Fold these 3 entries.
Entry 1:
Amino acid sequence: MIEIRGLAKSYGAHQALKDVTLSIRPGEFVVVLGPSGAGKSTLLRCINRLAQPTAGEIVVEGTPFRSSARDLRLLRRNVAMIFQQHNLVKRLSVLKNVLVGRMADLSPVLSCLQLFPEADVKIARHCLEQVAMSHKADSRADALSGGEQQRVGIARALAQQPKFMLADEPVASLDPKTSRIVLSYLKQSCKESNIAVLCNLHQIDYALEFGERIVGLSAGEVVYDGAPAGVSGDV
Ligand code: ADP
Ligand code: ADP
């Protein structure tokens, strides 16, 4: 179980996030739905400490994470993040990009030399299978289409073997057909691996199609938390 307790974030006098409390079960696919400026990015960035929350805590399987260096390392290992811009290393192969997801467990020397243990290569290849990208393992990342790059970004996050996956508008730059393919792979692969997902979206149609549970965010507050069937058009 992943628990977000009383999370808040202020930028000066502006409260971007107000007392957000959520519990997410392993394998649950939760869509955070809200208009631009609602605080969706801030929520995800406070969870993995890309931003420092003003109040609140994250508890993963009963262990609270605070701001010590050790807690941050553990948090980053347990929580993977996917961005709108997948940030792949363009000149590296697809497989090596996925292996980047394994680097936290490697010694700095090995990771500098890009020498990966066979066990890590096996994990990376399995993650590429989960997003149906095995056939492109040896292609350079910049030879792929936008949708394929995002699928590799998902594989890289899966390779980290996280308990929790955060996806910040993962399909915002993709066309509708490609968006649905990418969201399907994200949902299916996280289900297979029993990873809890918080996926930010601003499109209500994708949210209703893919979300098992919808968290509606408006002006930094949770205004809805429940089944897609109960969502009205004004979330
Ligand atoms: P969303 O992801 O839903 O579009 P954000 O989390 O990006 O929303 O932003 C929520 C609010 O916080 C917005 O009003 C935004 O302008 C503000 N905000 C976000 N990041 C910063 C920052 N670094 N400094 C000041 N204000 C910020
Ligand atoms: P998105 O909503 O797509 O996540 P934003 O445009 O809200 O992106 O934010 C992009 C970046 O700009 C983020 O790093 C955010 O922290 C920062 N940002 C957003 N709003 C403000 C603001 N009012 N002042 C300073 N930085 C901001």
Entry 2:
Amino acid sequence: METVLAINNLGKNFGRIQAVNNISLQVKAGQVFGMLGPNGSGKTTTLGMLMGVVNPTAGSFSWFGQPPTDHMRRRIGAVLEHPIFYPYLSGRKNLELNAMIKQCPVANIDNVLALVELTERQHDAYKTYSLGMKQRLAIASALLNDPDVLILDEPTNGLDPMGIAGIRELIIRIAAGGKTIILASHLLDEVQRVCTHFAILKKGTLIHHGPVHDVGKGTETVEVKANAP
Ligand code: ATP
């Protein structure tokens, strides 16, 4: 399997706060890779570095065996926070605007709308969408340029059970379509349900990584360490 992402001794300090400390791991093509950790464990900072919006203070990483250039980043789609959508425009119009900004073929819009199951609601105003639908539209927008990798930061945060189920099914569908997915989550059951591989971050440090059938083992480690004096 091709190595999509290789992270080598990556670190980030914000002043005296060590947000990410000496992380090394690899993500291979086709994996759904979960970064599991509680709030403040360094997941968002790590994803920010991988997307080129946060500068590392130590270490390096490569995408597809190459240093992270803008060209490489075109192969990566991300939903790091809710993108700006216009409330009174339809879901489709919002995607058309994003497609224009990203210079993607408008033809992709039908495909991504179908994939995120918003074809029927595409002409309704964005403001009428449920939170789950808004998140699915955000994912659709990240997929407009047909990236090889999709990065999602806590994609089910704040959603009701139906919205959560919809996003998890969508992640599994996208992975089945051949994309590599990197997903930050603080929910163990989310990682167990959708991920093939995972890493556990605690206070910026990688304390376990491997295939998801190990997930229980890694979590015990978190519990034990969390309770340690
Ligand atoms: P959450 O789920 O709450 O987003 P997280 O696992 O994504 O948590 P980060 O957001 O990466 O964790 O934060 C890791 C640490 O770095 C925290 O202590 C946080 O307060 C700190 N931190 C993050 N960004 C900054 C910043 N811009 N300036 C100062 N400290 C920061």
Entry 3:
Amino acid sequence: YYLLHNFSVMLDEEEIGEGLVLRDITKEEEIDLLKNNLISLTSHEFKTPITTIKGGVETLLRSEVEWDPEFKQEILEGVHEDIERIEHLVNDWLDISKIDSGTMYVERNTIRADHIIELSMELIPEQLTEDAILTFDNRLREGFTFFADKMRVQQVLINLITNALRYNDSSPKTIVITLDREEGYTTISVADNGIGISDDQLEKIFNRFYQVDVTATRRTGGTGLGLAICTGIMEAHEGKIKVQSNPGNGSVFTLYFPEKEGEE
Ligand code: ADP
């Protein structure tokens, strides 16, 4: 359903309740709405990095000027950062299309948790991890394995760990990664001591484009698609993602991967 508007229900000039006008939309219409949303969002988000890349490259192309090597380096680093930003947007967009068309396929193998966490950590920008303390479950050293798609799990973990560091004003930032097995699932939890999420926002953060604080997110360059993609990836694993939070004190995101049939 798509919410058109809400209204008050009156009886003898007294308000006795609230009503909602919902329109039953088809799956196709829903996808269209989301696509329009995605297109307007991304075209806006693309504009800034493209403008900076263009400006940077045009500056360097001015052959009549002998640029200082340090200045040149600075411009190239900026251009590189903006290209990465565009790459990120395109990848997010492709993943959302896969989720919508039911083609977010996963290739599951038995993978080692320590390897996957190490690989994920390597891909997180250094400026995010420099004032952070990461603690890992002891079981990581014992070669703990689970059944999942290596690249997709890595993507989900990078997202959760990046969020845990971004939405965090504590010093030092602490992240604890825990592994467990419960009722047919292998679980991986990422706990942070960040700003936390209030009860009424807990469900919404998994929705596309939803961001609790747009100004803070603008600063961190998020798109609000990360957790929606994580949900799609976990569903493709026939698993789930859950969150618990204590506003002001931090959050815990837990991934549930179904165990391989016939395995303990
Ligand atoms: P993005 O980070 O690009 O905004 P996400 O879908 O990853 O998009 O997250 C949606 C929103 O959920 C974030 O904008 C933020 O407000 C909130 N959020 C996500 N992870 C955390 C966290 N660990 N602590 C506090 N808030 C979080």
